[in-house]
Write a structure and sequence with these properties.
This protein is of the alpha/beta class. It has a single domain, classed as Ribonuclease Z/Hydroxyacylglutathione hydrolase-like (Metallo-beta-lactamase, Chain A), CATH 3.60.15.10. Helix content is 21%, strand content 22%. Helix 2 links the parallel strand 3 and strand 4. Helix 7 crosses helix 8. It starts with a helix and ends with a strand. The protein binds zinc ion (ZN). The site of zinc ion has 6 residues, from helix 3.
Length: 355
């Protein structure tokens, strides 16, 4: 019998490790682009977007985060849509670390974005999967569901979603540029913890997801859309329905949060009253019922008013782009729903319990 003991011990040690390893999410600073690295409790990784080209700055920052996370490869890469701030770093990154499978919204594109689709096709040859709403991205240990892709959204409610009373008198806006409307958005679930990332999806699609039925249910952590500017996004009927506990804003010093949203026309039929809402994007997020904290990638240098930014402890970078050290924000999530968010600039950390 004794000869079986080491094997039993190993199984016990492995299952203990499997239980205690958290789900980790890194918001890598790509100066107002997007790059979110997810490492599931099984050790499988999913990167959502690859930042800008800008030399190889963002690819190097993403690579550094993979090394911090102890990764030998990126198992799954989702490119949310073909804009420079989301796919620009891919060509360089794909030379730094192996990438397993690639996920995207498909080939529909405008001429001005063709170069980004071409660079993606070159990097993903033979390893590409086009996703539609309802598809899963197969990351072991978590459930990652596609909720929007190629101008379509989920057909039916998930995650306990249902009729949304906030839709009455809710304002509608005109659709934005098609590439943002094609964004692949995902809802990642790990026990009670729900992470919603709709990237650059616009107000019109948010309303499709939230009205008259909230198809997404309530979420724990929300990566604010449009880099926190909520420019043509952040519909109050949607934000009030998903009711995030914690928000992470992937803004740059002069992009996203702090930009003024005045580009997208309201489609309110004349004479119809709509519920008033907060126009400043930080305040609109901060005033959501149930919100506990907002974390920012950058202090907004466009609008440094303290009432338009979160507390300095919860801002990863305070400088302009040229001096920026590129500190990240990280969430570590336990199976119990307890999670902590940490600012790598100062080590400041807060712990929450997913509702
Ligand atoms: Zn963007």
């Amino acid at each position: 019998m004794t000869r079986f003991l080491p094997a039993l011990f190993l199984v016990a040690a492995w299952s203990l490790a499997a239980q205690t390893r958290p789900l980790d999410i890194y918001w890598i600073d790509v100066e107002g682009g997007a790059a979110t690295l997810i490492v599931s409790p099984t050790g499988e990784s999913l990167l959502i977007d690859t930042g800008w080209t800008v030399g190889d700055r963002d690819a190097k920052r993403i690579y550094a985060a993979t090394q911090e996370a102890g990764l030998k490869r990126i198992d799954h890469l989702l490119i949310s849509h073909f804009h420079a701030d989301h796919v620009g770093g891919l060509a360089a990154l794909s030379k730094m670390i192996p990438i397993g499978r690639f996920f995207d919204h498909g080939d529909a594109i405008e001429p001005q974005n063709q170069q980004w689709l071409d660079s993606y096709k070159a990097a993903s040859a033979g390893k590409r999967t086009i996703v539609k709403p309802g598809d899963a991205i197969p990351v072991k240990g978590v459930r990652t569901l596609v909720v929007s892709s190629d101008e379509r959204v989920l057909a039916t409610a998930i995650n306990g979603g249902g009729p949304n009373p906030l839709c009455t008198d809710a304002e509608q806006k005109a659709p934005v540029a098609p590439e943002n409307q094609r964004t692949v958005g995902v809802l990642l679930t790990y026990g009670k913890f729900k992470f919603l990332d709709l990237i650059d999806l616009d107000w019109e699609k948010e309303m499709e997801l939230a009205c008259p039925v909230n198809k997404l249910g309530q979420v724990t952590l929300y990566q604010s859309s449009r880099h926190g500017s909520l420019d043509g996004a952040g519909a109050p009927a949607f934000l009030g329905a998903i009711r995030p506990q914690v928000v992470v804003v992937n803004n740059g010093p002069r992009k996203g949060l702090g930009q003024v949203d005045n580009t997208v026309k309201s489609l309110t039929p004349s004479g119809k009253r709509t519920a008033p809402y907060e126009k400043n994007s930080y305040q609109r997020l901060a005033k959501q019922p149930g919100i506990e904290d907002i974390w920012q990638q950058h202090l907004s240098l466009l609008d440094p008013d303290p009432s338009h930014n979160t507390g300095e402890n919860m801002i990863a970078n305070l400088e302009d782009t040229a001096e920026c050290k590129g500190h990240w924000i990280k969430a570590s999530v336990q199976q119990s729903g307890k999670f902590s968010v940490t600012n790598s600039r100062n080590g400041f950390s807060k712990t929450y319990l997913a509702r």
